[in-house]
Amino acid sequence: MSRTKHSVIQLIIAICGVFAALFGLRLFNLNLLMKFPLPSRMVLMIVTQWALFLVPGILMIVKKESFRDLGFKKEKIPQQILIGVLIACLMSAIFTVLPILLGFKALVGSTSYTQAWK
Questions:
Q1: How far is 35 from 17, CA to CA, in rounded Å?
Q2: Is the pLDDT reported for residue 86 higher than 90?
Q3: CA 82, 87, 93 angle in degrees (round to 5)?
Q4: CA 16 to chain centre
Q5: What is the pLDDT of residues 42-70, one digit of tens each?
Q6: 14: buried, middle or exposed (CB in 10 Å: 19+, 13-18, 0-12)?
Q7: What distance in Å separates the CA atoms of residue 41 and residue 20, rounded to the nearest whole number?
Q8: What average pLDDT is seen over the chain?
Q9: Predicted local confidence at residue 90, as pLDDT
Q10: SS3 track for the chain
Q11: What are phi and psi of 100, to 5 degrees?
Q12: What is the C-alpha separation between 22 and 6, in angstroms, rounded?
C-alpha cells in the first residue's frame, strides 16, 4: 500500500474515532454527568475531554510518532501556549460572539445572557 493511501486511511480512522468519542462524551454529559456532586463534575469535565485524543493518540503510538514530529518542541512552549490561547479566543469569537451579535442567539445554545460580552 502506498504511503499516501496509508496516511489517508489513518486520518479517516482518527476522524471517525474523534467523532465516536464526541458522541460518547455527549451521551455521558447528558445522562450521567449531572448525577455527580459539583467537585467531581468539575474534574470529570476536564478528564473526559481528553477522550477526544484517545484514537489519534493510539494511532501516534502505533505509527511511532512523537509530538516533536507534529511540530511541538520544548524550546517553544510559551509560544505554542500563546498560539493555542489566541486560536481558542478566535474560535470563541467566531462561533459564539459573532452569531449572538448577528441575531442568531438561538443557534448558539440556551443561555440567559443579555450582553454579548458575557
A1: 26
A2: yes
A3: 125
A4: 14
A5: 888 888 888 878 778 888 888 888 877 77
A6: middle
A7: 22
A8: 81
A9: 92
A10: CCHHHHHHHHHHHHHHHHHHHHHHHHHHHHHCHHHCCHHHHHHHHHHHHHHHHHHHHHHHHHHCCCHHHHCCCHHHHHHHHHHHHHHHHHHHHHHHHHHHHCCCHHHHCCCCCCCCCC
A11: -65, -45
A12: 24
Query: Which three three-digit cell numbers place residue 33?
Result: 454527568
Measuring CA to CA, which residue among 52, 62, 45 is closest to residue 16? 52
Q: Which amino acid is at 89?
A: C
Name every residue whose Cβ is closer than 8 Å to that of residue 21 and which is 6 or more positions away in sequence.
Answer: 51, 52, 54, 55
